[in-house]
Amino acid sequence: MSGPARAPRRSARAHDAVLAAAVALLEEGGLAHATVDAISTRSGVSKATIYKHWPNRTAVAAEAFGRRMAGAAALPDTGSARGDLTEQVRRTSEFLASGAGRVFGQLLAATVGDPGAAAYLRDHFLTGRRAASAELWGRAMARGEVRESVDAETATDLLLGPLVYRLVGGHAPLTGTDADAVADAALNGLLATP
After folding, report:
1. CATH number of 69-190
2. Phi and psi of 191, rounded to 5°?
């Protein structure tokens, strides 16, 4: 086979190796552990190649994290808006309280001042999570259980934003009881009255 046909496969293998190395390093020591030097050493891919495909280590880590977490959370289906949305808040709280949640917090903090890396976190992780929440909201809307004037984006921010704030601020716990209290407070303002 000719060289040009092999190059994309070689590039895809290098891309996968970089992301696998970044995932392993994130799991071992968080974002601080996932330096470009460490990713290069672990993956066997040169730093020049890494920088050819990503603007910095935070972008690599954000894409790797998104790949690792893809499909990690199935949508709840309790048959009611209150049940589904409360369970979604609980699951998000559990995630944020886990080791993966701490890595997410590190990535979130690192991307605040880095729009390029922020796009990777958004594209490879947040967009999928927000789409799942929008699906739950759409189901609730179709059943007539929520206010039609509230869109999925706003509902997601109201339900899940407090949890991220707790993760970043560290001012309150991320327990199941606390998640239920957050969901209850938000839903009492969001659910349609019978």
Report:
1. 1.10.357.10
2. -70, 145
